[in-house]
């Protein structure tokens, strides 16, 4: 059941990403477009937080927030360093 739900979320995430990009492209302000992308990029996490708070599962909310922050910090920063090293190569003095 979990695997099928995971597979079903893939096209929905693509649709949400495309809709957010189209909406952001229509805005004249780049700052608002970036804020819109960042907000709707975490829409799934926000819905899950609301549902788990309604169910009274505060520990799940805390763990989810911690996992989200750690994945954004470690994964994104690590991949940036990794691909920056591959593309940039060595720095000449």
Average of the residue pLDDT scores: 83
User: Number of helical segments?
Assistant: 4
Approximate strand percentage? under 5%
Q: Order of helices and strands, N to C?
A: HHHH
- Please give the alpha-carbon distance between the first and last residues: 56 Å
**Major pleated sheet:** none
Q: What spatial form do the alpha-carbon principal axes imply?
A: extended
Would you identify the regions where 5 or more consecutive residues have pLDDT less than 50? none
**Helix share of residues?**
over 70%
Total DSSP E strands: 0
In terms of structural class, how would the helical and strand content be classed?
A: mainly alpha
Rg: 18 Å
What does this structure look like?
- The chain has 93 residues and is an all-alpha fold.
- It is 85% helix and 0% strand.
- It is built from four helices and no strands.
- Helix 1 packs antiparallel against helix 2 (30-41) and helix 3 (43-54) runs antiparallel to helix 4 (58-88).
- The chain is extended and about 60 Å long.
- The protein starts with a helix and ends in a 5-residue tail after the last helix.
- The relative contact order is 0.06.
Keywords, separated by commas or semicolons:
4 helices, mainly alpha, 93 residues
């Amino acid at each position: 059941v979990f695997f099928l739900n995971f597979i079903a979320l893939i096209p929905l995430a693509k649709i949400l990403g495309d809709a957010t990009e189209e909406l952001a492209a229509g805005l004249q302000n780049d700052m608002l477009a970036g804020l819109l992308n960042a907000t709707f990029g975490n829409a799934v996490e926000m819905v899950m937080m609301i549902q788990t708070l309604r169910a009274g599962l505060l520990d799940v909310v805390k763990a989810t927030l911690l996992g989200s922050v750690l994945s954004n910090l470690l994964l994104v920063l690590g991949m940036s360093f990794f691909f920056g090293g591959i593309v940039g190569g060595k720095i000449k003095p």
